Amino acid sequence: MNRQTLPMIEVRGSPYERGKQQGEKARPQIQKALAGYRETIPQALKMTWEEAAREARKFLPYGEEAFPDFVLELEGIAEGGGVSFEDVWSLNCYEGLVDTRQQVWGCTSLAVRDDQTADGHVLLAHNEDWSSVDRGNVYLVCAEPDGGPSFIGMTYGPLLVNIGFNAEGIGVTINSAHSTDGRVGVPRILYSRAILQARTIGEAIAACVPKLRAGGYSYLVADSNGELYNVEASATTHDIMYGRDGWLIHTNHYLSPKMQDLEEPDVHIGSIIRFHRAERLLRSRLGQVTKGCLQGVLQDHINWPYSICMHEDPARPPHQRGLTLASLVMDLTEHTIQVAAGPPCQAEYVTYCL
Ligand SMILES: [Zn+2]
Q1: How many other CB atoms sit within 10 Å of the CB of residue 35?
Q2: Residue ranges in the chain assigned as alpha helix (H)
Q3: What is the sign, positive or negative, of the torsion defined by CA atoms of 165, 169, 172, 173?
Q4: Each residue of 155-189: pLDDT tens digit?
Q5: What percent of the chain has pLDDT over 90?
């Protein structure tokens, strides 16, 4: 097993100050990400880096209107990272620019309520599957924003932190969704960041679906009371599902019939297989789920290499390769997160406490 851990960066203060500290401390990851995407964007986006930056600029007024503090945070990341704001902004708009149908990878998320776990804790687990370009660019951020709440989350390169939990016991994971109504608007990563400052489950759900959004994720949102919600969003509409049986799973296809009407027709089969596999493994342990059980689900290799624990497919061109970059098990009751740096079949989980 690989004992390598992800870097943990601590930031505090105002949005700009926190961004600047993130930029300074993650400068190697930020500069490596920008260099990597400069190489792959022409194939992945079918446009030059400059054209991508021009497209991304159209999203900026929407971001400034909806979340001015996050734009300041990104300005700080650019300053601290020694890179241009335009480059940082472009990568934060990436999912609004790319045709996500060509992505054969995808994340898997699970949430389990306290009455279904062995120790009565609420657990939230996630495999972060993304482009191989970002291998080595992933890190954790422990943040103490002015006015709170503090949070721990994962991100990579110059992106805003977008998966994690906060001191109010609110946790979020996101899964890419593929809808036909994408448009210029508020980049989706800004509102996944917004969930981390929610103080109630209601604020967290509202943060998933701001006005004038460019697109949407599927958000698995949970709190330490055991309230579990799956919010499936696209640019123009959304649906909210409640975890009434004490668990929820999501991969990369919509579960809501309302959202399925907007889904791209050729969503990859791997997402459906990962969903059913996670469901089968979780159902066999309901009532006695532990963090170890969830680690086991996240290490599963059925349909390898497009399994829950995803590995690179060398038959694919480099810009279409992906893998599990990080694997996370959050305990919203005791405010801890277990993190494996890379495919969890190869990396040990390390525990961090908020
Ligand atoms: Zn594996």
Answers
A1: 11
A2: 15-25, 27-45, 49-57, 60-66, 68-81, 85-92, 94-97, 188-195, 201-208, 257-260, 269-283, 291-298
A3: positive
A4: 999 999 999 999 999 999 999 988 999 999 999 99
A5: 87
Ligand 1 centroid to residue 324 C-alpha, Å: 8
Can you tell me the mean pLDDT for 121-135? Answer: 96
Cα separations (Å) of 344 from 18, 126, 140, 325? 30, 11, 16, 9
Cα distance between residue 217 and residue 233, in whole Å: 6
Two structure tokens written together for 258? 């309302």
Structure tokens at 306: 């497009």
Q: 299 C-alpha to center of ligand 1: Å?
A: 6
**Cα of 2 from ligand 1 centre, angstroms:** 12
Quote the ligand 1 centre to 309 CA distance (angstroms).
Answer: 4
168 CA distance to ligand 1 middle (Å)? 33
pTM exceeds 0.90, yes or no: yes
Q: 296 C-alpha vs ligand 1 centroid, how far in Å? A: 11
List the domains of the chain with CATH numbers. 106-353 (3.60.60.10)
Give the C-alpha separation, 69 to 56, whole Å. 18
Question: What sign for the dihedral angle of Cα 114, 115, 116, 119?
Answer: positive
Mean pLDDT taken over the chain: 95
**Dist. CA 88 → ligand 1 center (Å):** 31
Q: What is the pLDDT of residues 270-284, one digit of tens each?
A: 999 999 999 999 999
* Tens of pLDDT, residues 202-260: 999 999 998 999 998 999 999 999 999 999 999 999 999 999 999 999 999 999 999 99
